[in-house]
Automatic annotation (TrEMBL):
Residues 180-259 form the Transglutaminase-like domain. SUPFAM superfamilies: Cysteine proteinases (SSF54001). This is Transglutaminase family protein. Pfam families: Bact_transglu_N, Transglut_core.
Length: 307
């Protein structure tokens, strides 16, 4: 049975403001959604003010990156990314068809898979000398019955959003998993990193995903909401972050602990990486008086096309 493709228009605007003219270094802009069998990019546009030279490359993860060099001095740097995509939401069969060898934890990847997944299996935050994180991860394992891989991930995904306080942060960087546990709060990227590092300690390969989240409640152009899109979600209106776990038989499966979503059609991926620091939507430098920086404004509008 053919699933219905949904088209979205997305506009991502980022504005940096300064009290006096400054000059700019090279900026890396990761804005183009990743094409695959379930997501097709129909149109893209990138507008930069002041005038800039731009070229496109692929990074080591095959993310599309625009290298933007603003020309001259200005008191404002404005980067507007617009695109139209066609997205096919995953079916239940896509989400549930695990290879029998991976149905229960612990499981072993094949030799070839381990070679390709090495960087996604290895924990990248090794400051946990007392084993706090692995003890936290073990609370989702049962001792009285076999541990279903899918159920363990589902329990952890739900627990994070329900037990931690969501706090959006505009500043760059991500809390370490231990900081998130100690604070009991974090942003979407903090939640994603916590679950990534915890599941890696259970032997599951994970990677960080940055992108966008469709929220029908914010879509003023929508005449009818798609099935399942009426639930309130957190993180729409700006860039969003989640993770993917690699499960044999399913492949890379999305988990969004901020909203307790799994494999959702509301998640529109842009960049993937082994660590959040490698998938920043925009990064760059500027030169001038250190006191000149006034702040950053960013907004994301995701609208579902009708018809």
């Amino acid at each position: 049975m053919r699933r219905m493709a949904i088209q979205y228009d997305i506009r991502h605007t980022t504005v940096y403001r300064y009290s006096k003219p400054v000059s700019f270094g090279l900026h890396r802009v990761m804005f183009r959604p990743r094409d695959s069998h379930d997501l097709r990019v129909l149109a893209t546009d990138l507008q930069v003010s002041p005038e800039a030279s731009t070229r496109l490359i692929q990074d080591p993860y095959s993310n599309s990156v625009a290298l933007v060099q603003p020309l001259g001095e200005a008191t404002e740097l404005r980067i507007v990314c617009s695109f139209t995509i066609e997205h096919v939401p995953p079916s239940q069969r896509d989400l549930l068809t695990l290879d029998p060898s991976a149905e229960f934890l612990p499981f072993a990847y094949s030799v070839q898979e381990r070679l390709d997944l090495e960087h996604y299996l290895r924990p990248h935050h090794d400051d946990d000398t007392e084993g706090t994180l692995i003890r936290w991860a073990h609370q989702f394992l049962r001792t009285d019955q076999p541990n279903s891989t899918r159920e363990v991930l589902t329990r952890m995904n739900a627990h994070i959003g329900q037990s931690f306080e969501y706090k959006a942060r505009d500043e760059e960087g991500t809390q370490t998993p231990l900081e998130t546990l100690a604070l009991g709060s974090g942003s979407c990227r903090d939640y994603a990193l916590l679950m990534m590092e915890a599941t890696r300690r259970l032997g599951i390969a994970t990677r960080f995903v940055s992108g966008y989240l469709y929220d029908a409640a914010l879509d003023t152009a929508a005449q009818a909401q798609p099935p399942g899109a009426g639930e309130a979600v957190t993180g729409a209106g700006s860039t969003h972050a989640w993770l993917q776990a690699y499960l044999p038989g399913v492949g890379w499966l999305a988990f969004d602990p901020t909203n307790n979503l799994m494999g959702s059609g509301q998640l529109i991926r842009v960049g993937v990486a082994r660590d959040p620091s490698l998938a920043a939507p925009i990064s760059g430098s500027w030169y001038g008086d250190a006191e000149a920086y006034e702040g950053l404004e960013a907004s994301v509008v995701v609208s579902r096309r009708q018809g």
